[in-house]
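During the first year of the project, the team set up a workflow for recording each protein of interest as an amino acid sequence followed immediately by a discrete structure-token representation. This format lets reviewers and collaborators read both layers of information side by side without switching files. As required by the reporting guidelines, we include two representative entries from the current panel. The first entry is reproduced here exactly as it appears in our internal archive.
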Amino acid sequence: MATSADTPQGRRRERVATRLREALAVLRADPESEISVAALARHAGIGRNALYTNHRAVLEDLRALQAERSPASGQDEVPKLDGGKGEAEVRIRVLATENASLLRRALIAESRAKRLEERNADLVRELRDRRNVAMLPIAPPNASEE
């Protein structure tokens, strides 16, 4: 029975796994480095899709490293003196801007729908008028034409 390393795809997967393990070691050694899937994929020179699809074990190791580096439930946080009002105001402004743009898009869509409904009604009316058969009066034959 052939192992996965016997096929070209298997050999490629093994080479990529080796590069991923080396990149993970580099990230682990540097305490200032960003610990993310994108950073790991960038260091290994592969796409994130390949990492998510074929290298789940390395992904689990990365998650463990992220858990090691994360601060322990806010122990190191310095309390903010303003109570977070500045961040809240910024967030409110961002949400208001987003809401305004969504409202504008909705109004544009509604006006476009109204115009299209009116155009559709005009076309239906025109089609109905063209389907009506107009009866032309038949003139009695003139004696002068014979």
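The second entry, processed by the same pipeline in the following quarter, appears below.
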Amino acid sequence: MILDKFLNLKGTSIQGYLHLENIGIVCRIESKNQKAICPRCGLESDKLHQNHRHLVKDLPISGQPVYLQVNRRQFKCDNCRKPFSEELDFVAKKRTYTKRLAENILEQLKEGDILNVSRRNDVTEEEIQRMIEDIAEEIRFFGLSYAIDGSYKGWNPYRERHWAIFVNCFLSKAN
């Protein structure tokens, strides 16, 4: 299907799609993998336990918002006897947006503020804050020292601008 090429999500296939007026494109996708690796013991399992469908926001196509209806399957490990959810390369656990959308939004923050970037991308300011926290956690994981400075006040009746600055503490250079 041509949408498979547009979405470019390796290891997945589009099962169907809808174009909903005033909403965007909704693609139903599934992993091509028939097995998943248990996070507890590291063994592979093909025992499907449950299906869990989630709606995930992705990068737009031709100016149209794109939503992915993702089936994050739950498998049962033969060794541990415990159920576990499959890992998906393109979306982090407990997130409602793809990793590439988060990367795109973080790039936009270099030239804008949280409020305007959230409006432009139809995501909440809280989601952008979560994206910033996720990238800060990744930076800490690799042993780098970065600081995040900015103004984030949650609910704001005056709709003041929120902003974030990433600073490399070793080089004293804004990123």
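For the second entry, the following points were noted during internal review. The chain has a mean pLDDT of 83. The chain has four helices and twelve strands. Both points are flagged for discussion at the upcoming steering committee meeting.
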